[in-house]
Structure formats: C-alpha cells, structure tokens
Amino acid sequence: MGRPVKAETVVLWLCVALVAVAGLVPIAAIAVESFRHNGHFSLNYYRELISAARFWPLFGNSIWLAMATTAVCGLIGVPAGILFAKSDLPLRSGFMWLLTVPFVLPPYFVALGWTRVVARIGQGASDLLFGFGGCVLVLSSVFLPITMLLTFASSSNVDRRLEEAARLVSGWPGVLRRVTLPLSAPGIAFSLVLVFLLAMGELSVPSFLRYPVLPVLSFTQFTASYNFGAATAAAVPLAAIAFIGVLVESAFLRDRDYRFRSTGQTLFISLSRKRSGLAALVAALCFALVILPLAALFGDAFSLAGMHEAMQRAGASAVRSVMYSALAATILMALGFLLGHAMRGGQQRILNFLTLALFAIPGTVLSIGLVRLWNTPSTWFIYATPALLILGYTAQYCAVTTRLSLAGLMLIPISLDEAGRLNGAMWARRLFRISIPLSARTLVCAWLAAYILCLRDVPIALMTAPPGADPLSARILTLMANGAPPMIASLCLIMAIASLIPLAILARVIPSRGMAR
Question: 114, 138, 266, 308: which has the highest count of C-beta atoms within 10 A?
C-alpha cells in the first residue's frame, strides 16, 4: 500500500488549484488566444499590433509613466518612510495614515479631485493636468503609500543593536547610509518594483486624464471592438512585463525571507530643533497630495438633492460593493492563511512567485482572461454571476493576504507546533488550536486589507461584473460622463466612507512600536 496523503498536502493542493483556476488558467487562455486566428496557429495579431503606428508610442508612454511614477514615489516615499520609522517627528502616525488615504480609494478619485481644483484656477492649469504630468501627479499620490509603508516596515525591523554599534563611530547620517538603508534595501527595492508594475498597468487614471497608454488600448479592443485576439495580443506584453518584474524581485530576494522579527524598541533619531520644520514640510505634503484634491472632490457631496439622486441611481451598487468585497475578503483571508502556512513549511519560493505575479498583472489583463475562459454556454453559472468577479478578486489579491499571514505566522514559535505534533495532534487540530488562535490579529489585518483592495478595485469590477450588478467603483466611473457633479461627489463620499472605516480599524489593529533613544 502507498503512503497515506497528509491532510495538509490535500489542503495545499486545493488552495493551489483555486489560485490556478482564478488566475493562472485565465492568463494561459489569453496567451493561447493571442496565437490563434480562425482556429489555427497564427502570429497575425502580433504582426498587426507591432506594425500599428500607435503601438510603440503607447508602449513608450506606459514605460515612461511607470518610470516617472516610480522615481517620484522613491524620492518622496523612502525618506518619508525612514522619517516616520526612525525619528521623533510629531504626529508621525497621523501623517503616515493620512498619506495612505489615496491608496485605499479608487485611483480616479484623486484625478477627479484635481480636475475640480484646476477648474477653479483656469484653462492653463487644466492643460497641464490632462496629460503626462497629471498622470504622474495622481499615480504618485496613489502609490506613494506602497513605498512609504514598505520602507517603514523594513527600516523598523533593522536590528537596533547594529545601529547602536554604528552610532559609536558615526553620526546618524552615516548610520542610515551604511547600516539602515543597506539592510532595508530589499524591502525598498520590492516597493519600487511593485509601484512600477502597478503604474504600468493602471487603466482608470490615464483614461480619465486622456493620456494614451497600452492598457487603454487593450481595454478598448476588448470592450469597444470586442476583438478578443487583438485585445489579448495587446495584453500579453503587459503580462510579460509583470512576470519579468516579479522574476527580478524574486532573484534579488532569493536568499531572504519576509520574517518580521521584533528586536524590541526601535532606535530613533532625535530631530531636536528640526522637528517643527520637518513637521511643517510633511504637513504641506499631506495637504498638497491628499487634503487639497479630496476636499475639492467632496466639496459638493453634502447637497441633499445630490445625495438623494446618488442613492437612487447607485444605492444598490454601494450595497453590492460591500457584499462582494466582504465575501472576497473572507475567501482571501482563508486562502492566504493556508498558503502562508504552507510557505512557512518550506514551499515559499514557488508560491511566493505565483501569487505575486498575479498581483502584479494588470487587472485589465486578468479580466480579459477570465471573460475568455468562462464565456461559454456550459459555464454560464460563473460568467453571468458575481462568481466571476470574486474569482478575479481572489487571483489579484491573494498575494497580499498570503504575505500578511506568513509575516504573522513567522512570529509564532515553531516549538509550539512541534510540541503539538509530539503529543499526537493532527495537522487540523494544531491549525485550529495553535496557529489560528495565535494569529487572530493577523487574520483581522488580512481581512481588512483584502476588503479595502477589493472595494477600491476598478478594472476587475468594470470588466467582470454581471450586467446590472456592478460595484460602486465601476458605477461611479460610468456615471461620471453625464452625471451631475453633486451626485458624483456624493457617490465618491459614500465610497470613501466605506473604505476609510476599515482603514481606521486597521490602523488601530496594527500594534504600535515602542521607541528608544
């Protein structure tokens, strides 16, 4: 007789199968579709794409936009993350969470807010906003928290004993340059790669600000022309860049893991006389990137007539958004915890690569693959229902809950699980009696993060939601063309409240770190 299959092995393969069905198979489907023409192997779609006069300019625009956004996020986010993590800056927690607000909202909210600002300034400012500069401004505001928070996490976890030893022979500038930054480099590099890939695949902001990029071409080929072959051919370069970016990240971090080890209180920099000036500078940054555009956006949101019209035209979408996001977050929390548990047991590299690749792939590409795969008469029960949307959310964001779960599981001493095994406890019993109870805070954080990401998502919601059942992020985008400004502002306010409440809870759940001189 063969060896019995372990329960954890069965669960792991079921989780991998879910990820494959939700994300890997759809990506494979669009790759196959791009090489088929009239039922035969063909490179016609790629020949037409490459020979088209607009492909290379759109591709170049996407690259330049992603590079510029990454550069701005790096120049602002890395110093801000170190400042918040390693200094006694007043109100640093409030500043950090305020700068995070644009990321938890649909990206086009910031763009819409800036259009309200420049409308009060004049035509010259409007001309500057609509184009490359406006896209860089908006996307930098949206993706800045990624660089800032990952730099904060990386620099906070530098062993203070190394910094204390360096302080004996050098001042803080030398300590930061020779100890803190080199040890934080993997997290910082990962954040920059992530920002580049997310900016490369962004759809809503370039579309709204009329800056032509490759994701817009793929989207229009799919929705306007309904040309699957051309849409998939335009999507394949985006998917390839995402995979290359993840390979670069994996190679750079191949000998490192994502364990967050507590080293006690964080050694911090005493700013002394510079505290007030730096606090004023950070406050000005928060005002320019967050308060100004969002205040302009929500300025008309408190009209009773506008709020009434908003609830009439999109109240059901708001309810659906919360329901879809809550359901997807629950699935993602469970899936991420089980995958994180498997990665802790030594399956880290391949699972890490697969989940991160799906997160980096643009939502437009994943959505085209999902529609192409499930749009058949025999699978109508998935294609014509919210199940397709939930699959898209699951594939796109499982990397987030997996990494959060892995980080939490790494804090649990492995000796506890070994003691349970020696006492004869089966895997499921150890999971429910040891791992899950000790990971309660981690599970709450993972659920909240997944809920926020699903709620703010635009391309998957726009392209995979069934007719008449669109989430609020997609509904607002479709109503912006002819909706009254007070109604649009009211809908944006409703969406913002639904996103900011879990963000506030998340800020309370994440433990604060002690600091020492």
Answer: 138
Rounded CA separation 4/415 (Å): 25
Q: Phi and psi (nearest 5°) for 194?
A: -65, -45
Q: Do the Cβ atoms of 229 and 479 come closer than 8 Å?
A: no
In this predicted model, what pLDDT tens digit does every residue of 29-43 receive, in sequence order? 888 877 877 777 777
Residue 136's contacts (CB-CB under 8 Å, 6 or more residues apart) are 65, 68, 69, 72
Using the predicted structure, report yes or no on whether residue 514 has a pLDDT greater than 60: no
Q: What is the largest CA-CA distance in the chain?
A: 80
Angle ∠(136,301,316) on CA atoms, nearest 5: 95
* φ and ψ at residue 267, rounded to 5 degrees: -70, 130
3-state SS class at 41:
strand
272: left (phi over 0), alpha (psi -120 to 50) or beta: left
Q: Write the CB contacts of 512 (distance below 8 Å, at least 6 apart in sequence).
A: 93
How many helices (H) and strands (E) would you count in the chain? 28, 4
Cα–Cα dist 79/285, whole Å: 13
As a residue count, the chain comes to 517
Residue 190: Cβ within 10 Å count:
22
Q: Which range among 5-14, 451-460, 500-509 has the greatest average pLDDT?
A: 451-460
pTM: 0.89
- Count of other CB atoms within 10 angstroms of residue 112: 26
The C-alpha atoms of residue 86 and residue 107 are separated, in whole angstroms, by 30
